[in-house]
Amino acid sequence: MLPDELRAGRDPADRVVTVPNALSVVRLAGVPLFLWLLLGPQYDLLALLVLASSGITDWLDGKLARWLDQSSKLGMLLDPAVDRLYTLAALAAFGIRDILPWWVVAVLVGRDVILALCLPVLRHYGYRRPEVHYLGKAATHNLLYAFPLLLLAHGTAGTLGDVARPLAYAFTTWGGALYLWSGMLYVVQAVTALRLARGAAPGGGTVDPRVTDE
User: Which of 159, 150, 158 is nearest to 44 (CA)?
Assistant: First the structure.
């Protein structure tokens, strides 16, 4: 028997109400709570629990999307967007609390600002968002591993803090390097797309939107 979406002539990828999307919305709702816990009462342990819960639900919504055959375009947008919001929230909080130097925060946030500025230009020429690269995912995961270690290194004295500190710096350095590298790859994708678009414009041909959504 055909799924209801196919019988109704709808693309299943256009679904909005799915279990994985619901989990992504729960993760999204945790971002302001995570930021408030870090900057307000500075309940670092609770903030870590929120971050860990986000990581578990991130893994779970991907599994459920495959198990329940509920992959969707909205889910493909929400998942990396929520990861990025947690990353930006943590970077802002760590800069304010002097856990990370501001120049590190500025470099990593500047990468996202540059990519955001590329999107309107790409849309103008008929292209979509640059495809998510595996380096970008690896960079985000390394940074999300680094954040709890940075909190432990900053707020814990003794052996635990001493053990967490080099691990925190290692994940931050490696994750930051991958974050910048993946950003450069996205910019190269955007520049290549714009060159193709400008080359097609004089002939009046249509732009092939070969760059896919995140």
Answer: 150
